[in-house]
């Protein structure tokens, strides 16, 4: 799995450009990501993920995530 740091394109708010690219080959089945942005109401997602193979994802909303931490 790869992590992409993104910055919005000034000419078009729906497109993104990627200033840096780092590879994380340590992501195995069951690995989570994005939990930092779920822990706080005002947290901002700071990376995007690009899978280089077929991947099943599970989306968990903030309320469910924070409820499991209690």
UniProtKB/TrEMBL annotation:
Residues 1-21 have a biased composition (Low complexity). Residues 30-70 form the Cyclic nucleotide-binding domain. Signal peptide: none annotated. Residues 1-34 are annotated as: Disordered. It comes from the Eukaryota. InterPro entries: cNMP-bd_dom, cNMP-bd_dom_sf, RmlC-like_jellyroll. This is Cyclic nucleotide-binding domain-containing protein.
């Amino acid at each position: 799995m790869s992590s992409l740091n993104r910055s919005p394109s000034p000419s078009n708010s729906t497109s993104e450009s990627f200033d840096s690219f780092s590879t994380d080959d340590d992501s195995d089945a069951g690995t989570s990501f994005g939990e930092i942005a779920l822990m706080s109401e005002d947290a901002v997602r700071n990376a995007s993920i690009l899978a280089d193979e077929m991947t099943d994802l599970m989306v968990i909303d903030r309320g469910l995530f924070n409820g499991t931490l209690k």
